[in-house]
Amino acid sequence: MDGIGTTPPRDHRVVATDLDGTLLRSDLTVSARTRAALRDARAAGMIHLAVTGRPVIDTRRLLAGLGYTGPAVCGQGAQVYDFGTDRLLLSRSLDTDLVRELVRRIAQRTGPLALAAVSAGLGTEFLVTAGFGAPYQQHRWQLVDEPDLWRAPVAKVLIRHPDHDDDTLAALADEVCGAALSVMHAGPGLVELLPGDTSKRTGLAFLAAELGFTGADTIAFGDMPNDLPMFDWAGYGVAMANGHPRLRDRADEITVSNDADGVAVVLERLPAVRAGNRKASLR
Predict the structure, then answer these.
(1) Angle, vertex CA 59, rays to CA 216 and CA 38, nearest 5
(2) pLDDT averaged per 10 residues in sequence order, the chain, 283 residues
(3) CATH entry, 96-195, from 3.40.50.1820, 3.90.580.10, 3.90.1170.50, 3.30.1240.10
(4) Which CATH code fits 14-91+199-282?
(5) pLDDT of residue 2
(6) How many CA atoms lie within 13 A of 204 on its CB side?
(7) Where are the domains of the chain?
(8) Any residues with CB less than 8 A from the CB of 282 and at least 6 apart, and which?
(9) Max CA distance (Å), the chain
């Protein structure tokens, strides 16, 4: 559905939001309008869950000042982190021998790849080989030779090739890896390899079992193909107007862009959020 919906989806208990291109504006901030909508959702008893491809170290920084205290799905579902206790509830890492072999097979099809590795755990390292560049400008990436990518447990590997666009490279990697690894296209230049059966869906399902909610209870917001598993699991999926065509095609609704507060536009239509706004205004 293109444009803003006129009939609100049914109320949901859980609001699951991607960060980049979705909850965050292009300057990586959360607008005052979106903050207010999330406040009203919490006042109505709804749970907000951040669900992102970024590792914990990024997620903590980006959500600082938002009053976020609950768990978050990070690293495409490879990590579930509890802000309240500062601990990992779930952490998955790659089988080094397996991922090196599959990267070799992908490179046989594409030619030499530029690689990056994000280490597992809370003390995240960001390592890149020559020619990769930096996915996130706010990070210091350490330039290393390929063997040094594997010096510590790795949560995910990113691949780039100058002659293949992201969609083509992701499709080729998925063909090579099959079920052995999860391949996610998370943004420009962000084609990621993760442990098999790892996705935002698996991270949310882990929290659903812990917190006692279901996919049907969840309204999810996203912008890229890595949000597809989350949309398939959630009861209602909302794609941003700036989102990837594959996600927009799968969405139940398309809202306005992240820079136009697309998350808030939808939340403000929910009866429970409107009731939460009335509660907040009485305090």
Answers:
(1) 50
(2) 53 93 95 95 94 91 86 95 93 94 96 91 83 64 88 92 93 96 92 96 97 95 96 96 96 97 95 65 49
(3) 3.30.1240.10
(4) 3.40.50.1000
(5) 42
(6) 33
(7) 14-91+199-282, 96-195
(8) none
(9) 64
